[in-house]
Design a protein that fits this description.
alpha+beta, 5-stranded antiparallel beta sheet, 8 helices, 30% helix, 30% strand, globular, disordered N terminus
Length: 322
């Protein structure tokens, strides 16, 4: 008699449109269960449909770039992870495991898939991860990721009257337009070392009507930019970058005015003391901590394929860029 060989308990595949609802439910449940258990509150007050913003945005920006782990026996989705290929890097997006499968290696399978994919591209893998979730931090640390920059998450209730904005001398703040994209791309490559022109085109197309993008223009051209998203599933400032902290303060105050009556979140580098003090003066409070990390299997830790930012960086979670 032939001996039966048990199938692997889990298998990976790419997300399909029919999976969107299940992935949104998974993200909603995973975030709420972990946060309530470990921090005593649920971060997502709306229902699971609000989390459809993730497959909607990510698939619109990078089709076929979400890996799923299915339980083989039941066919249930046990975990999901979005990823974003760019010319200079791959960005690791939101990664979630269904609570029923916590501790069974699902997250490691998802991460391995993206690491293997990135290795074939020959570029670094970047992410921004929470430091208060030590299970998550350990997952990335064990895989070889190296922390590069520490960020403080801030939030405040934006008054209906908004905030006055005084751009630095000689500078103008205005909406970003398509003609600005080459200059914005060049600025980010100079300050941060990454190229994501596709993202900026996507923000400006704004098919879902959830994005707003600003630029700060100085005598020599574009010196900063800041994007924000306003959606029931994500109300956040970023991505953004600026040459100076003074410019960063002006960009944040300007972009906050598009979130009047809401309580957006934004990330500020912990070393940017001028920005942090200006935000505290507005009434902002710390609500979490994050760290950017990079993995490059082709280089030593000293090389890492990472360029330290020479300006101010404002990362985001939708879409993540590291």
């Amino acid at each position: 008699m032939s001996q039966n060989v048990s199938a692997a308990p889990f298998q990976t595949r790419l997300m399909e449109p029919k999976d969107w609802d299940d992935v949104a439910r998974l993200i909603h449940l995973s975030l709420n269960v972990w946060t309530e258990k470990n921090r005593g509150f649920k971060p997502i007050s709306g229902d699971w449909q609000t989390m459809l913003v993730f497959p909607r945005v990510y698939e619109g920006l990078d089709p076929n770039c979400c890996v799923l782990v299915d339980e083989t026996a039941s066919g249930r989705i046990a975990g999901s992870c979005f990823f974003h290929p760019r010319p200079t890097h791959v960005a690791l997006g939101i990664l979630n495991t269904h609570p029923d499968f916590f501790g069974r290696g699902v997250a490691s399978m998802l991460l391995k898939y993206v690491i293997d994919f990135t290795g074939k591209q020959g570029v670094p893998l970047r992410l921004v991860s929470g430091t208060t979730n030590l299970d998550s931090f350990s997952l990335y640390s064990k895989a070889g990721f190296v922390p590069t920059c520490f960020f403080q998450d801030l939030t405040l209730k934006v008054p209906e009257s908004g905030f006055t904005v005084q751009p630095p001398s000689g500078c103008v703040l205005r909406d970003m337009v398509s003609d600005d994209v080459p200059a914005v791309v060049a600025l980010e490559k100079e300050l941060v070392g990454i190229d994501r022109e596709r993202d900026f085109r996507f923000f400006l197309e704004n098919e879902g009507g959830i994005w707003h993008s600003s630029v700060l223009v100085g005598p020599g051209g574009v010196d900063g930019y800041l994007v924000s998203v306003k959606d029931p599933g994500s109300n956040m400032l970023g991505p953004g970058a600026a040459r100076t902290e003074e410019q960063g303060v002006a960009l944040i105050r300007h972009e906050l005015n598009f979130h009047r009556g809401l309580s957006p979140i934004w990330l500020v580098p912990a070393r940017a003391r001028t920005i942090l003090q200006a935000m505290y003066d507005l009434g902002a409070k710390n609500c979490d901590l994050h760290v950017s990390q990079v993995l490059d299997k082709t280089k030593t830790v000293e090389g890492m394929g990472f360029e330290a930012p020479t300006g101010i960086v404002f990362p985001t979670f939708l879409p993540e860029s590291g």
